[in-house]
Amino acid sequence: MKHYELLFVLKPTLTAEETQAKAESIKSIVESNGANIAAIDDMGTRRLAYEIQKYNRGHYFVIYFEAEPAAMDEIIRNLRYDEDVIRFLNVKYENKKEIKQWETLVSSVGKSGKKEETQSSNEESKKEDESATQE
């Protein structure tokens, strides 16, 4: 299996729920093609370097995963036909030095990218607050 990094930019006009749903659907596409996802980095909304499809901003995500090279064709095909993805970039890490860098990136996302855990803890605290107010 090869090591890959997939960066994709979603339209800024999507709501937060739509953005997360689209990111989950892309994650499921990657997983359904036999990939092992190592880390997902939600980089948030950022300014684009240049205007793309009349958008100046976009919501960035990076997925680090391992997959067979044949699976990449299907993943790229799905991204190419998705209307909400305004740009994507796929990077393959081949030699030992690049794979070591990939592992460093994955571990840095694990340390600093605890956004998923923070979101789930925020959702839990909201549920606790709702249940406390109902009592």
Give a structural overview.
This protein has 135 residues and is of the alpha+beta class. The protein has a single domain (2-98, 106-134), classed as Ribosomal protein S6/Translation elongation factor EF1B (Alpha-Beta Plaits), CATH 3.30.70. It is built from four helices and four strands, in the order E-H-E-E-H-E-H-H. It has helices at 16-32, 69-80, 96-112, 115-134; strands at 2-10, 36-52, 55-67, 85-93. It has a four-stranded antiparallel sheet with strand order 2-3-1-4, with helices on both faces. The chain is globular, with a radius of gyration of 17 Å. The termini are far apart. Mean pLDDT is 83; it is low at 113-135.
Task: Please summarize what this structure is.
With 135 residues, the protein is α+β, with helices and mostly antiparallel strands.
Features:
single chain, 135 residues, alpha+beta, Alpha-Beta Plaits, globular, disordered C terminus
How are the secondary structure elements laid out?
Elements: E1 2-10, H1 16-32, E2 36-52, E3 55-67, H2 69-80, E4 85-93, H3 96-112, H4 115-134
Antiparallel strand pairs: 1-3, 1-4, 2-3
